[in-house]
Amino acid sequence: MIPYDKREGKIWYNNDLVDWQDVKLHVLSHGLHYASCVFEGLRVYDGEIFKLEEHTERFFYSAKRMDIKIPYSQDEINNATKKIVSAQNVKNGYIRPFAWRGSEMMAISAQQTKIHVAIATWEWGSYFDPKLKTEGIKLNISKWKRPSPESIPWDTKAAGLYMICTLSKHEAESQGYTDSLMLDHEGKVAEATGANIFFKDKDGSLHTPIPDSFLDGITRRTVIDIAKTKNIKIIERKINPDELENFVGCFLTGTAAEVTPVASIDKYKFKVCNTILDLSTVIAGPLAGSLIAELGARVIRIETLEGDWMRKGFNGIAPNRTMAGTEGLSINLKTKEGQEILQRLIPKVDVLMHNMRPGAPERIGISFEQARQLNPDINYLYIGGYGSTGPYSHRPAMHPIGGAVSCLLYTSPSPRD
Q1: What's the CA gap between 345 and 276, in Å, rounded?
Q2: Could you tell me if 343 and 366 are in contact, meaning their C-beta atoms sit under 8 angstroms apart?
Q3: pLDDT digits (tens), the chain, 417 positions
């Protein structure tokens, strides 16, 4: 990885675009010694800045709480953020605005120091290893606790508040964990080192700690808003650590973390995501699996030993989209051994999806009734082009999407042919 002080491009620094490697601050800056610094973190998706106004509003709120007067308006910071993202040509990345006290005074009192502001941005993917988006991350429980709200400006993104986060994450990583769960001063569940946390109960409701000693994240609020539109019950409350054994799911939310599933916290295990077994072919079925994978599910595509014939379709363009984000497993389903492998997979998945013509699933032992015998809780999805019982159900279907892409249309002299 290129060190952050060795990168190319520009940084917005006190209302100027300065060459990345030429941005300097004095070693006796008050912000460096006494943590008189506030910051924000934003994401860029497909060239668009996510929740820019909300982040800038919080940036100014944090500064006010820290007795830092930013020498620009919120509109000026918004415009500067857009300007640097454009200058750096960031399409999918991260933005870091921050403000700090300068070097005019070196003491606890620093009322005469200059307030500096900078905004840096760079291309950046997943905060955690992308593989963990399906496997889930592992957390320990930190020995450090979120302080009492009477002792710190807890509802800000002030640099000093992250000291115990760094200590907690370093300790977690040294023990083989990905991150750390932090408790609050009362011993209740608070958050991870840089992200809020949600738990899912057996009824599908989401539980999340009340943010009364830690930051109420913008991504956290976004997830709550989305959940409410989906009629998912949100319960904000105090959560004891020993309650974790009652939850079936867990995930983190944050600008950096985005939405990341958690596989375990200490001794407590959680189901990470739904697993879909996809036996569909051509375009519409595999595309559905790919889209579901983008939403966080694990999709395992079953293909022939030669691979799905669509891998060669449209000069390889089709599979780049229809199979993106999925896993592939080649099995010869014409053999007893291959069919047994498939049947051993069914008890381990949540959804079975196929577009085979009637009779084919029965021959390999995965009809609805056969699948339910292997896994009583399985969701069975049939997406054949002509349905399973209609007069044309025996036909191989020309998928509408495929017809549109190839400009081909199935025609026959008679609808009965």
Answers
A1: 10
A2: yes
A3: 899 999 999 999 999 999 999 999 999 999 999 999 999 999 999 899 999 999 999 999 999 999 999 999 999 999 999 999 999 999 999 999 999 999 999 999 999 999 999 999 999 988 888 777 767 899 999 999 999 999 999 999 999 999 999 999 999 999 999 999 999 999 999 999 999 999 999 998 999 999 999 999 999 999 999 999 988 999 999 999 999 999 999 999 999 999 999 999 999 999 887 889 999 887 778 888 888 887 768 898 898 888 777 776 666 566 667 778 788 888 999 999 999 999 999 998 999 999 888 888 999 999 999 999 999 989 998 887 776 677 777 766 655 554 444 444 444 344 433
Instruction: Please give the Cα distance from 254 to 192 (Å, whole number).
Output: 10
Q: How many residues does the chain have?
A: 417
- Helix 52-65 and helix 74-88: axis angle, to 10°? 120
Neighbour tally for 91: CB within 10 Å: 12
Q: Which of 10, 133, 138, 157 is catalytic?
A: 157
Spatial distance between the Cα atoms of 360 and 235, rounded to a whole number of angstroms: 46
Would you tell me how many other CB atoms lie within 10 Å of the CB of residue 382? Answer: 16
Residue 220: CB atoms within 10 A of its CB come to: 21
DSSP 8-state symbol, 416? T
CA atoms within 13 A on the CB side of 233: 9
Q: How many CB atoms lie within 10 A of CB 45?
A: 11
157 is catalytic: yes
Q: Which two tokens stand for residue 87?
A: 């200058």
Helix (H) or strand (E) segment spanning residue 318: helix 317-322
Report the distance separating Cα 291 and Cα 280, nearest Å: 14
* pTM of the complete model: 0.75
> Which burial class, exposed, middle or buried, applies to 76 when counting CB atoms under 10 A from its CB (0-12, 13-18, 19+)?
middle
- The candidate with the shortest Cα–Cα distance to 97, out of 115, 109, 80, 73, is 80
At 321, the amino acid letter reads R
